[in-house]
Amino acid sequence: MDRDYRTTAKSYNFPIDRVKGDDLTKFHIERARFRSSWYLLASTVVCVTGYGWTLASKAVCLLFVHLCILFTHASNKNVAVPLVLQFVIGASITCLFNMCGTLLTDLNPRNPALAQASSNVVRCALSASGLAALQAMINHVGPGWTFTIFAGLCLLTAPMILAEMRWGFGWRSGREQDIELQANGAHAEG
Which residues 6+ apart lie within 8 Å of 63 measured at CB? Predict the structure, then answer.
């Protein structure tokens, strides 16, 4: 993220001030934060899809016991592929969450904790919804199509990221002007 920040700042001829900090009201922070998100999103979509079809192909049969111990039914079955895919999925999604969390903090300097808490509530609610539907979907359409659908849902975030990168600076400028007008109106009434 630091490299993306420096690269974006350089492309906009924006000076970086490590002592005082940067004035983000004049900087396209949305582009800086999401600059590398495309690689992570692509790896997430590909690996989630591959994970589902790996499970569907019977290349590995997984049985989760109460203590989450992983067993295989036959000695010729290999769990390496799904485990590697899980690692890449987890790493990619964690990086994306960190990008979004950092952007939330940048966009809400007056109340970053509230922004993060709101994000966590929404993220956990969506995760719970997905998890509640998971077993029913696997039973109905199989693991390959279930995880392909989940990958499609991940892919639906691409237009949102693109919109934030393209129009986020304008949205933020408008919001800051509204806040300033409200503050000036409150001072004028007081």
Answer: 70, 71, 73
